[in-house]
Amino acid sequence: MPPLIKHLYTADPSAHVFRGTMYIYPSHDRETDVGSNDNGDQYDMADYHVFSTAGPLDDPSPAVTDHGVVLRSEDVPWASRQLWAPDAAHKAGVYYLFFPARDKADMFRIGVATADRPEGPFQAEPEPIAGSFSIDPAVFVDDDDDAGGEAYLYFGAGGGGDQGAGAAGRTAAA
């Protein structure tokens, strides 16, 4: 299958079906002259785009819509750089974008931004999630439970993340 997105470099996508449409939430890596190093400085990821396709999921060449920049690092009050692999969720009429970024002390933290539509634009919360020194958020909303859609946030460690506190945690999305 050919790449869905050809006009810019994307990585680390998460895909979700909301309202019968598939939405793709990737990171966006820009070209840089910074050499490769253990800190990952060569990854110049300063914003997120959201893409969607309403065609059949087995279509080998679906039409893809780029909804443009939906969140920029300068719109995240606590972040300094490197918006890495995001994930998205929907609960109680709100769309959530969970994302790792480096804070002002250059540590990865996980933030959350909200929107009233899956394609954004997203508004970042003023602070990262407390205790979230990590990367690679993954969200699961359990809409089959008696709690009315309890949300779980799982996350990785490494790359400046919290190496000692374990690889997964649980938090409510709303």
Properties at a glance:
174 residues; four-stranded antiparallel β-sheet; Glyco_hydro_beta-prop_sf; disordered C terminus; mainly beta; single chain; Tachylectin-2, Chain A
Number of domains: 1
Distance between the termini: 37 Å
Describe the sheet with the most strands. Answer: 5 strands, antiparallel
CATH 4th-level superfamily? Glycosyl hydrolase domain, family 43
- Output mean pLDDT: 84
Overall 3D geometry?
globular
Total helical elements: 0
Helix content: under 10%
What is the CATH-assigned architecture? 5 Propeller
Strand tally? 11
Query: What structural class do the secondary elements suggest?
Result: mainly beta
CATH topology: Tachylectin-2, Chain A
In terms of DSSP E residues, the strand content is 35-45%
Low-confidence stretches: 159-174
Radius of gyration from the alpha-carbon trace, in angstroms: 16 Å
Q: What is the element string, with H for helices and E for strands?
A: EEEEEEEEEEE
Per CATH, the class reads Mainly Beta
